[in-house]
Amino acid sequence: MAESNSSFTIASKLRDYMMLIKVSLSFLVVFSAVVSYLLAPKVVEYHWGMIVLLFLAGLMITGSANAVNQVTEKDTDALMKRTAKRPVAEGRMSVTEGWAFAAISGILGVLILAVFFNLLSAVIAAISWFVYAFMYTPLKKVNSVAVLVGAIPGALPCLIGWTAGQDELSAGGWILFAIQFFWQFPHFWAIAWIAHKDYTNAGFKLMPSVEGPTKYSAIQTIIYSLALAPIGVLPYLEGMSGITSFWIVLAANGFMIWQCIRLYREMNVQAARRVMFGSYFYLAVVLLALLADKS
Question: Is the pTM above the cut of 0.85?
């Protein structure tokens, strides 16, 4: 019985840490960093040890930033249905433990980048961590400009991965950064649309319109999805990828624009959910297409 209880405690603690780092979100962030690393021209062979190290470093740094987010927002998390079960918000994990995890994992992640890759990628990662944890997080209750600020660390994993492989900030990295930067606006506003009541109750101001899910907000998703279209052709023009991925990215952009137009026409949660899931599909397809067709 004691052994069973011990196993249950360990499993519960692991689940809490997975919630603390927002494992699904962290995986998406790290995925974009790894693909960007593999897209760097200097990376001509797949060294799985280096890929695993980059994945681990990215998971530690992203998990650290998410832990800071949950520690500092524990009271507002407790007010929202979708976040009330988080470990710090519900009291299953202490604030001290959350801070300790954030500090240790963040430092280790940055050190892995500095030692095994280069100092530039480590510095960018540290900047990304700081902007997310200490600029974006407190701004969410002040003004919707928080979404713009948050899009910077949300897109910096592409630059981190690129510089880890290329040892420099160059056009390819900035193109990948731009794709992920503009992608975040329709993606995040769709999430904010779905969870608008929860966010409002917690005091978050995240929609482009102060009235919340309005035609104006829907138009903003269309504008940013349209901005993705010309940016999406840049990898081909820069010589990062071939003509096959050019057409795939173009089709993915058309799909994204159409989902945002449907949101404008239908103005409901179901349409916002299609934008949200469609954006996940878009990012995965675009990054994998570019990688598969790397020049």
Answer: yes
